[in-house]
């Protein structure tokens, strides 16, 4: 299986552990991710706040490059990129005016937009294309005894995701179960972590992260699994500030792909697990084989 | 407005009434003309958006109130509030709205309007971040988070750097502190592409402050 | 049929109506009259202020007598309004009423033009078309279809019961068919009814007993209609009577068999108590069930499923021997003239809104579940309790669950505001708990309802205007621990609130029954876009349907409360009685007919008819149109490959001449 791959700015910066774990895990499952050539920033929420047309052009350039790259679906792990690329697709489908603007802009670089490249999320690919049976087969070190709270965040499940339910998504839950982990019932799984407000308006943003961490811990989770680099940063990097303001809530947050890597037997260093502010405890001792 | 009840404190009262002349007639319709925002006309003010919004408790006007103010053409109230900047684009409101109004997209439209008309506090970090973000992307094609955050501190809040020293050290320690500017090869091409939209710009809306 | 004798000497009378200013304001009527007066065949051409008035109609009669007019054309408003008026006027003057043609120059011309000249030219063209057409009109007769005096009522809820009693009291023979083992419908599950707080059972059960006792009502419960053939006045209905495994004639409802059942403990979800309690395989739906006859569930009965049971029930009924485990379903057929559908509603499935936690949090219940809790004959003996048996100290009602929501049901379910306030009052009365109602709007129309709202406020019920965003079980403050938390914006106070409660009640909306589409097809009816049975006219004919002889009443037509259901039931009964007492129905002769010599027996027309009005005579290999069922839609006429189907009032020569008339004026 081969897909085009759009990492996004964060996966080369703060969120590099996501890419570091995603690529070997995908390779292990026989999925090749081919990075788009000379991709540009998707614009995230910031560009859309300033100029809608430019934001559309920005995102559309990547879609056009993906189309040129071949008839493969485009996989993007970062939630904001997933949202923006899908939103752009919808806008270009719904608005003739926007389509015209974008085509003119792309035309100056010899690119066109045809709208036939689906933008997919790794969870979607793992559960629906690769299949949980294949994932289960590849597990050499089941995560038995590890209590994981699956945290999806906002922008993957709302408003464009068709591959999972917006209110109660289960793709990551099922994936974790296939890895042998104990999935913790986590009703805040789609509640906002505070996004960029944790930096610009900490009083508001950090509190949202605090609530998530507190509830995950209260429900007995050992670790929170996430699919978004900003969520991971927010839940991982501010424990000192949270403790000072509201109280201690020390619980590690890792990427789902890092857990997958561990279950596949890939060494922790190769999965970027050393990049967590709050390190994850080593997995519980492997369970004894069941008596014959 | 909380009364100051200390003995001897002067009693201050403030008169709040909205006259029709304070309405910027047509503002609501302009906002609703933005693609995706037309459903606002069907809002029944049920409050589901505010009820589900994680940031509504920090906003000076709840999302529902913003919708009411937009429809009633109270442009100043809307663009000067902090509400539009506190929207984290989590889309919870959009998904829950029983009238299928795309509230988050309306917030974006209001943000764009406020930036265009420069109606936000000078050093308010959120619009400053948006502006710095777009500057970096327009020039380099990608953003480098650490460099962006540093620019943000410089432009908006120098002192915050000091309180975030632990984050800084943590990033260095874990190898996530990237100082090399990410850039694309064809940045000139990208700049040219973005520039084409300027010539196609629509005329400024009738209720634009500067046009008045 | 075609009457050539009249064709030769056609003398047309043309009348153009001013309709006050409605037509004359845009159309130059005298000019049109002048123009038409010069057309061949026109003997008289007049314009007049109000043709539909008595003097206007008298004009027509006068001309028929004085000028030998034998065809009449009136150019005025829509035929839907006055075609009947003018046909009557023509008939009164001794001419066949179908020698009349109406031209709409109001809705189709004057009301849609802004240019006088253009409007006048169009009027001339339309009039010219009618002049050419009316020459080919044939003399036609309406047909009289007799009405069988018996009536079928489908659905034994309050609406069905009231319709059946009204008809039966009027001396008509009624078959009341009900799907459940007992009549009573949803109302039998209610405790007290708003706004009077009358006990539902106390006002319903006398009517239920009256149904049982009435000599004119044949009550068939645990039965369903499976086939309907025929047409207004002459329906043949096939009913499937499901086996109860009890002989209805012999059972006296002593319920000794239930006591004796091999299942010492009730194990299966009790449908009447909406799953809040359990029943045995042999059961009676509720204490006041009518008929007071036990029923055995074949899916659960050990003997019926496995053949291995001690059959203690049969032992217990030794003296009456009412239990018959070999009973089979019965198919019966009846002939009726009219049908009234009163099949009721179903409630919105609260699981479709997972945000409210129904099915996830045990103490989130629906309004109907709470209704059963408050009822003294209910599963908890009238105690409002949480799942663990404790009494709730705080209860939150969430309104508009599933209603007024573009994502689920767009409509307002009309009764839930009142229903919720009633339940809130009862909960406060039973438990003294703090009750908060979260609403969008409080809809309390109807007599005594606004006063009921006031009483709710006086009772100390808190009202928070804000549509609830979600129900959660995670706490942010100590007071929220262990409770269900409602997060909503209190829009009137202008602040977001988190309110912890012990129990949450969801005011689920009403929907059409799950099988509404199948049922409506059975009765050759339509459903509206929202799934409710479609009335003929939302204002003027709320209980009639487009299928003559089939009426609808109660919630199957749309959400409503008990007084309105009863009003509709009475209305439907009256409509049916009007038909029965008149004894016949007059059919407009715009029906299709088949020219036998030309029919090739290809059967193309048979499946096309939306009203199933075309049959096929196998012996003669010819298609046959049942004029009583035919609605004159013209589908078969257009489809017939050999052109052997014609339509009265829309013959080829009539249509072509009309086209020629319009083009002649181009």
CATH superfamily of the largest domain in chain C: FAD/NAD(P)-binding domain
Class per helix and strand makeup of chain C: alpha/beta
Total number of helical segments of chain C? 17
Assembly category: heterotrimer
Let me know the average pLDDT of chain C: 94
Amino-to-carboxy terminus distance of chain C: 32 Å
Name of the top-level CATH class of the largest domain in chain A? Alpha Beta
Strand fraction band of chain A? 5-15%
Q: What class do helices, strands and sheet pairing of chain A give? A: alpha/beta
Low-confidence stretches of chain C: 1-6
Write down the secondary-structure element order of chain A.
EHEHHEHHEHEHEHHEHHEH
CATH topology of the largest domain in chain C: FAD/NAD(P)-binding domain
Structurally, the number of domains of chain A stands at: 2
Overall number of strands of chain C = 34
Measured on Cα atoms, how large is the radius of gyration of chain C? 32 Å
Radius of gyration of chain A: 19 Å
Largest beta-sheet characterization of chain A = 4 strands, parallel
Set out the fold topology.
The complex is a heterotrimer of chains A (292), B (212) and C (666).
Chain A: E1 2-5, H1 16-28, E2 32-35, H2 44-50, H3 52-69, E3 74-75, H4 79-94, H5 96-107, E4 119-120, H6 122-138, E5 147-151, H7 171-178, E6 182-183, H8 197-200, H9 202-218, E7 223-226, H10 229-237, H11 239-245, E8 253-255, H12 256-263
Parallel strand pairs in A: 1-2, 1-3, 3-4, 5-6, 5-7, 7-8
Chain B: H1 27-33, H2 48-52, H3 63-71, H4 75-80, H5 83-86, H6 92-96, H7 103-116, H8 125-140, H9 145-156, H10 160-163, H11 165-173, H12 187-199
Helix pairs in contact in B: 8-9
Chain C: H1 5-8, E1 12-17, H2 29-37, E2 42-48, H3 54-67, E3 71-76, H4 79-92, E4 100-104, H5 116-134, E5 143-146, E6 151-154, H6 158-169, E7 174-177, E8 192-193, E9 198-199, H7 200-213, E10 217-220, E11 223-231, E12 234-241, H8 256-260, E13 268-269, E14 278-279, E15 282-283, E16 295-296, H9 302-306, H10 312-316, E17 330-336, E18 338-341, E19 345-347, E20 364-366, H11 367-374, E21 394-401, H12 416-431, E22 434-439, H13 449-458, E23 462-465, E24 470-472, E25 484-490, E26 495-501, E27 503-508, E28 510-512, H14 516-522, E29 550-552, H15 562-582, E30 584-587, E31 592-594, E32 614-617, E33 622-625, H16 635-639, E34 645-647, H17 652-664
Parallel strand pairs in C: 1-2, 1-3, 3-4, 6-7, 6-18, 7-10, 18-29, 20-27, 21-22, 21-27, 22-23
Antiparallel strand pairs in C: 5-30, 8-9, 11-12, 12-17, 13-14, 15-16, 19-28, 24-25, 25-26, 31-34, 32-33
């Amino acid at each position: 299986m081969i897909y085009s791959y759009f990492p996004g700015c964060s996966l080369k910066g703060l969120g590099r552990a996501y890419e570091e774990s995603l690529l070997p895990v995908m390779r292990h499952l026989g999925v090749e991710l081919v990075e788009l050539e000379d991709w540009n920033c998707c614009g995230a929420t910031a560009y859309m706040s300033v100029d809608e047309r430019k934001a559309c052009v920005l995102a559309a350039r990547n879609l056009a490059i993906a189309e040129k790259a071949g008839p493969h679906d485009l996989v993007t792990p970062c939630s904001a990129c997933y949202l923006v690329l899908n939103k752009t697709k919808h806008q270009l489908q719904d608005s003739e005016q926007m389509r015209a603007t974008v085509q003119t802009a792309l035309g100056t670089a010899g690119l066109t937009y045809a709208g036939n490249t689906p933008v997919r999320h790794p969870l979607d690919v793992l559960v629906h294309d690769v299949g949980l049976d294949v994932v289960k087969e590849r597990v050499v070190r089941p995560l038995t005894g590890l209590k994981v709270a699956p945290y999806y965040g906002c922008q993957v499940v709302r408003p464009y995701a068709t591959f999972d339910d917006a209110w109660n998504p289960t793709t990551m839950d099922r994936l974790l179960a296939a890895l042998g982990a104990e999935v913790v019932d986590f009703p805040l799984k789609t509640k906002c972590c505070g996004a960029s407000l944790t930096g610009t308006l900490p009083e508001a943003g950090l509190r949202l992260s605090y609530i998530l961490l507190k509830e995950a811990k209260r429900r007995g989770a050992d670790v929170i699994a996430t699919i978004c680099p900003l969520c991971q940063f927010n839940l991982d990097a501010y424990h000192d500030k949270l403790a000072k303001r509201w109280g201690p809530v020390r619980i590690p947050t890792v990427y789902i792909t890092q857990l997958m890597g561990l279950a596949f037997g890939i060494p922790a260093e190769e999965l970027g697990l050393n990049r967590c502010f709050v390190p994850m405890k080593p997995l519980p001792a492997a369970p004894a084989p069941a008596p014959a | 407005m909380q009364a100051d009840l200390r003995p001897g404190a002067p009693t201050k009262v403030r008169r709040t009434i909205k006259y029709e002349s304070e309405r910027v007639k047509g503002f609501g319709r302009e906002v609703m003309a933005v693609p995706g925002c037309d459903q606002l006309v069907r809002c029944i003010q049920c409050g589901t958006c505010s009820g589900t919004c994680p940031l509504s408790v920090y906003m000076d006007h709840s999302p529902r109130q913003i919708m009411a103010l937009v429809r009633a053409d109270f442009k100043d109230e809307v663009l000067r509030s902090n509400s539009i900047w506190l929207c984290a684009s989590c889309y919870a409101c959009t998904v829950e709205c029983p009238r299928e109004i795309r509230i988050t997209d309306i917030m974006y439209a209001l943000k764009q309007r406020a930036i265009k008309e420069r109606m936000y506090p000078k050093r308010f970090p959120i619009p400053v971040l948006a502006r710095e973000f777009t500057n970096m992307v327009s020039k380099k094609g990608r953003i480098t988070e650490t460099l962006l955050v540093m620019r943000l501190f410089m432009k908006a809040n120098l002192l915050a750097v000091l309180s975030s020293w632990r984050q800084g050290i943590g990033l260095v320690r874990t190898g996530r502190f990237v100082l090399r500017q990410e850039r694309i090869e064809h940045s000139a091409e990208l700049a040219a592409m973005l520039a084409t939209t300027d010539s196609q710009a629509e005329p400024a809306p009738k209720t634009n402050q500067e046009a008045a | 049929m075609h009457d050539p004798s009249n064709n030769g000497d056609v003398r047309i009378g043309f009348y153009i109506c001013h309709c006050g200013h409605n037509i004359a304001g845009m159309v130059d009527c005298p000019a049109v009259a002048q123009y038409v007066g010069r057309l061949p065949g026109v003997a008289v051409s007049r314009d007049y202020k109000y043709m539909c008035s008595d003097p206007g109609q008298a004009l027509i009669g006068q001309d028929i007598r004085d000028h030998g007019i034998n065809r009449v054309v009136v150019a005025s408003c829509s035929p839907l309004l006055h075609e009947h008026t003018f046909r009557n006027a023509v008939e009164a003057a001794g001419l066949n009423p179908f020698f009349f043609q109406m031209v709409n120059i109001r809705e189709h011309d004057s009301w849609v033009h802004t240019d006088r000249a253009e409007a006048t030219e169009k009027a001339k063209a339309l009039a010219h078309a009618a002049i050419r057409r009316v020459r080919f009109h044939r003399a036609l007769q309406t047909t009289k279809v007799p009405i069988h005096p018996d009536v079928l009522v489908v659905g034994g809820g309050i609406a069905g019961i009231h319709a059946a009693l009204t008809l039966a009291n009027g001396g008509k023979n009624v078959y009341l068919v009900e799907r459940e083992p007992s009549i009573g419908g949803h109302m039998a599950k209610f405790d007290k009814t708003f706004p009077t707080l009358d006990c539902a059972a106390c006002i319903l059960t006398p009517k239920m007993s009256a149904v049982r006792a009435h000599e004119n009502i044949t009550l068939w419960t645990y039965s369903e209609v499976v086939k309907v053939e025929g047409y207004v006045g002459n329906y043949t209905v096939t009913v499937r009577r499901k086996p109860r495994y009890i002989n209805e004639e012999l059972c006296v409802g002593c319920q000794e068999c239930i006591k004796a059942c091999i299942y010492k403990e009730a194990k299966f979800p009790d449908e009447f108590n909406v799953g809040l309690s359990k029943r045995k395989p042999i059961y009676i739906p509720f204490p006041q069930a009518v008929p007071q006859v036990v029923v055995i569930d074949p899916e659960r009965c050990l003997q019926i499923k496995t053949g291995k049971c001690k059959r203690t029930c049969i032992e217990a009924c030794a003296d009456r021997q009412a239990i018959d485990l070999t009973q089979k379903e019965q198919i019966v057929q009846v002939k009726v003239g009219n049908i009234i559908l009163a099949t009721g509603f179903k409630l919105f499935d609260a699981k479709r809104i997972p945000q409210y936690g129904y099915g996830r949090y045990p103490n989130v219940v629906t309004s109907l579940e709470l209704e059963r809790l408050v009822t003294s004959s209910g599963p908890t003996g009238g105690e409002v309790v949480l799942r663990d048996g404790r009494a709730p100290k705080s209860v939150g009602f969430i309104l508009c669950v599933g209603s007024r929501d573009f994502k689920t049901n767009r409509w307002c379910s009309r009764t839930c505001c009142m229903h919720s306030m009633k339940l809130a009052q009862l909960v406060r009365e039973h438990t003294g708990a703090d009750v908060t109602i979260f609403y969008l709007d409080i809809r309390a129309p109807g007599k005594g309802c606004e006063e009921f709202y006031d009483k709710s406020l006086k009772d100390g019920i808190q009202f928070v205007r804000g549509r609830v965003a979600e129900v959660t079980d995670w706490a942010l403050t100590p007071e929220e621990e262990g409770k269900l938390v409602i997060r909503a914006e209190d829009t009137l106070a202008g602040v977001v609130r988190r309110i912890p409660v012990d129990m949450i009640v969801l005011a689920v909306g009403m929907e059409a029954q799950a099988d509404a589409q199948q049922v409506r097809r059975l009765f050759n009816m339509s459903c509206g876009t929202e799934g409710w049975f479609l009335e003929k006219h939302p204002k003027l004919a709320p209980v009639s349907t487009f299928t003559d002889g089939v009426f609808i009443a109660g919630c199957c037509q749309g959400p409503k409360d008990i007084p309105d259901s009863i009003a509709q039931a009475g209305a439907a009964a009256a409509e049916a009685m009007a038909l029965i007492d008149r004894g016949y129905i007059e059919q407009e002769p715009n029906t299709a007919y088949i020219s036998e010599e030309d029919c090739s027996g290809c059967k193309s027309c048979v499946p096309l008819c939306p009203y199933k009005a075309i049959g096929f005579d196998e012996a003669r290999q010819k298609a046959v149109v049942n004029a009583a069922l035919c609605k004159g839609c013209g589908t078969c006429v257009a489809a017939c490959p050999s052109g052997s189907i014609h339509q009265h009032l829309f013959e080829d020569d009539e249509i072509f001449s009309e086209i020629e008339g319009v083009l002649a004026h181009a």
